[in-house]
Amino acid sequence: MATPANRLPCVGVFGGTFDPVHAAHLRMADAFWQQCRLTQLHLVPAGQPYHRAQGPQASAEQRLAMLQLAIAGRPGWLADDREVHRPRHAYTIETLEEIRAELPAGSALWFLVGGDSLQNLHTWHRWRELFDVANLAVAVRPGFDPAHLHPDIARRWQAAQVADFSNSAPSGTMRALTLPPVPLSATQLRTQLAQGEDCSGQIAKPVLAYIRQHQLYR
What we know:
By secondary structure, the protein is an alpha/beta fold.
């Protein structure tokens, strides 16, 4: 997506299993896009997520295809396939480093992480280096309490927070993302799909058609 000549790109990265991609994912992506004033958004389906006890039900290629259908027609939004095609476990730091290397020097890079994932951030591969590469937008749910964070993460949260998303720092800052409450989960949707329940309104129509065509989540 083209940006004004006097503005460096502001790029967001939203990773997940997207198994399947649903309305809450898209609302979160919209909030990320608008509040961070992004010029490009990479939605990155996980290939082989190393930190999950159970793998996705749909294949990486199917989850990528569903994501492409869900975001079709949204300028600046990209279904990024780099982790799908990685022949081993995908580490967030490596994905962010790759995207950073593709951007002009000084560009802002934002990584979206959930509040529950932030609590486990200290277990991620090379987690401290995330702050050298990107800013963190934290999607917090009601009841999120920074006091419950791991001490190392709590110190980062205290020291790196900025008041809003208007800062132009390329990396190193953190900010809470304001989200509309959406009580919806992929686990819940997979159960509904397995039981043959109506999920229209929760899953985009093209994605729902793809699920039915390929008989997923049965």
